[in-house]
Structures are given as structure tokens and as C-alpha cells.
Amino acid sequence: MPRKPRVEFEGAIYHVMCRGNRQQSVFRDARDNELFLDTLGEACVRCGWRVHAFCLMGNHYHLLVETPEPNLVVGMQWLQGTYTKRFNVRHKEWGHLFQGRYKALLIDPSGDYFSTVATYIHLNPARIQGYDFKNARLEDHVWSSYPGYVWLRKRPEWLCVERVLSCFNLSDTPHGRGNYRARLEQRLVEMRHSDTPWLIDEAWKKIRRGWCLGDELFRLEMEARLDGALKSAKRESFSGEGIRRHDEFEAERLVEQGLTALGLPEEELLGLRKNSPEKYAIAWLIRCNTSVRPLWIKDRLNMGKATNFAAFLRWMTNGEFGAECFEKVKTSNHRTDP
Fold this sequence. Notes:
alpha+beta, Alpha-Beta Plaits, 338 residues, 2 domains
């Protein structure tokens, strides 16, 4: 089954989340929670990670982790593999503990994106069904980094709080920690009076469904890094929104490349007939190097939805149609393998 690609680089920040296999609990009691946090602490030492937030929730966990070295994959293999072994030994079980691959959402360190993810993680206990907004306190969920943000004595030595606090212009002092607590309590009030408390922040949907969280410049940078990751791997092995966005970004680049090879301005190309060889030459270039759908290509090149797309591409590669245009575009891209 296709998987989502991993983008690794120095200083990358991720929201990492993984669930138990078939939704089973991965933290059955307090000792399991302690065992996971001990293992996470060891991973931080081994990999140099900086954990900015975490929350353990019975059948899944959340981490906001920074990797000064590009080693998320190696570190996560060790973390989940080691915890699984320790869990199985403790409970006299065997086999998989976690459900497939963990999710790793790339986070833009600028703007509000970083603090939004930390808040999302810290408010996770309040998003479960039946949460008692009236009587429960967020810091009562001790298997979260939130108590370490408001109570210094509850903080693991590997937990880094300064970066999140600084996003709110707060310092790691009693006053700063008190203000951070007040901010989170205000969000709890918003959740309590909302019909959909899990949707009070529009960014939360992007955290759950996306592949990266940031502004457009950050997304373009991540797509460029994704392009580098795909060059050393089989393209068909991957799937997901990141691949789709990467392919559309790459397709636009290929349009420009094809126009240059053909010596055509874009407005002239779009004005040609719908089944012109110039359009099909560029369409072929995009189809060979990306997985964007034919409809996207037809719309982008103004080819008409009813065009016999597959037949024209086949005729072109067989030399039966638009051979001159095909050769110009073909030789412009050394990555293309017809």
C-alpha cells in the first residue's frame, strides 16, 4: 500500500501522532505511561530531540518534536520499537502494538503555527467525548506536558517549554506560567460553549488532515524538499496530500519548461486548438513526471474535457502525431523516461 513520504532536515519540527493497532489501548495503566515517557526521554538523548509538547491518551499519543539532526525516521523506529518490546514483555504479549505508520505533520516554526499545535496537543484531553468542563481541570491529566508548563515540579528534564511560551511573549517564570494557564483556560471556556468543541480553531482540521502546517512559502519549501526525497525513491511507493500538492507544483514547472522548449508564450499556447500537438507534447511531459489527473492537465492547457486524451498521447509517443513537438519537449527534460 502506498505510504506518505517523510521529509527530514536539520531543525525540522513535527506533530507526531500514532494510534494503537485496531484502536487498542497502548497505555493500560500508569506504569505504561511512565514506561513510554522514560523511553521517549531515552530517544531524546540518543537523537538529540527537543520535545515541546506531548499528550498520552490511552489508545494514542501526540508529540511536538524538533529534530536538530535529520533523524526523525530512525528515532521513531527506535522509540516505537523499543516501547513495543517493553510493553509486550510487561504484559506477556507479542506482535504489533501500533497501527501502521505514525503520522508526522511538518510544522512551520514561524507565525502562530507552532503555538497552535502545542495548544492543540494540550487541549486534547478536553476533546474526548464526555469531558467534564465544569469540574475537571486540564492539569489533572498528568500524562501531558501541560502540567509541566504550569507546575515546574511536574516537568521532565527533556521537556522544552521556552519556545512555546515565547510565542505568547511569556517567560518561564511563575508569572509567565500563570498567564499561559489563563490562556488555555480561556480556550476551554470557548470549547465548553461550542456545539463542536473540536472545531473552535479552524487550524485544528488542518492538523488532523494535512501533511504540513504553515504559510505558502513554507509549503513551497517543503514541496521542494519533498521533490528531493522522491528523487531517491520510487515515486509510486508514496501517496497523500503532500504528493498531490508536490505534483501540481511540479506540473506547473513542467508547463514552463515545455513552453520554453517549444518557443511559445503561454497565451499563444492556450489559444491553439484543443488537440494541437504543442498542447499534447506538454501534456505528455506532465503525465510522464507527475501523477496529476488528466482533468487537471486538460483544464490547465485549455484542451477541453471531451478530448481523447489517452489516444493522442499514445499516437505521439509512437511518432504518429506531433513528432517534432514531441522531440523538442522530450529532449528538454532529462528526467523523462518514455
